[in-house]
Amino acid sequence: MNPKLVFGLFIAVAVVQLATPIGQIWKYEDALQTGRSYKFRTAPVDPYDAFRRKYVALNHAGTVTTIREGDKIRPRGLATYMQAARKEA
To answer: Rounded to 5 degrees, what angle do the CA atoms 62, 66, 43 make?
Structure first.
């Protein structure tokens, strides 16, 4: 192979390998700088589990609700979304 071609491919791959994590870091940092912060009242749950050892799990206040008759029940493991409102002080 032509050494100039090999060197050019090497440089191209190196640029892509450097650009990928830099781009991901940039997006994360941009979200931290321009995003909104939300505070949730939390309470710790039992921090010891025989299988997972010591860990921190938090329950969020207001995340428990009662199911009324006629409500659709979602299977476990499916993503659930909520709308968050910001209380202006």
So the answer is: 30
pLDDT tens digit sequence for 44-70: 666 666 666 666 666 666 666 667 777
Q: How far is Cα of residue 83 from the mean position of the Cα atoms in its chain?
A: 17
One-letter amino acid identity for 30? D
- The rounded distance, in Å, linking the Cα atoms of 25 and 11 is 22
pTM for this predicted structure: 0.39
Assigned token pair, 39: 């505070």
Q: Kindly report the backbone phi and psi dihedral angles of residue 61, in degrees, each rounded to the nearest multiple of 5, phi listed first.
A: -60, 135
Domain boundaries, the chain: 3-60
Distance CA 79, CA 17 (A): 32
